[in-house]
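Late entry, SN-glycerol-3-phosphate complex.
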Amino acid sequence: MKIFIDSADINEIKSLNETGLIDGVTTNPSLIAKSGLNFIDAIEQICKIVDGPISAEVTATDADTMILEGKKLSKIASNVVIKVPLTVDGLKACKNFSNENIKVNVTLCFSAGQAILAAKAGATYISPFIGRLDDIGADGINLISEIVDIYDLHDFKTEVLAASIRSVQDIVDSAKLGAHVATIPPKILQSMYDHPLTDKGLNAFLKDWEKTGQSIL
Ligand code: G3P
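Prediction complete; structure with ligand written out below:
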């Protein structure tokens, strides 16, 4: 499973990218607003840091303007992926981009029916929002399961990108179900490393090693 960072914070992206485990980045208008950065500059900087797909979202609501915005964004760097919302116009724009071999991430997906339409429109990625479904008492992980099954059954090439992730368990569940990508907020990605038994075990090993009086170097 590929790991994307769900953030527009340049310092966080830089530091997480140093792990060598990052395959891409997703941004959205809220994340850009939170970063306080100019949108185009932010995408340009992120594209230079991470060698992988970087999602940049259009903000128009009609297909024609989405296409103009997407074309401008795709000129920033060769690894830009255009993000469009799952609306009639968003999918019209998606179809247009995919006809021109421009990669598209279809965002704000909350149902399997929507995911079928996105695949038919040639989306490179579909982004089902797990956390926001859970927030309203629905089952976000079940949506991942439905979409993975449908795409497998019909051999759709669209990759399932688990988004709106709230916990490490969301990532593990998405991985078990066969999601191709998880886009992970930096804090949750950091916490994937953690286990109290790792800390406890390492402390014990280091104490015992000290007793030997040896050094490797
Ligand atoms: O990038 C889209 C998605 O991951 C948003 O997550 O936490 O705002 O629901 P969230």
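The pocket of SN-glycerol-3-phosphate is lined by residues 6, 26, 28, 129, 131-132, 163-164, 183 (CB under 6 Å). Will revisit in the morning.
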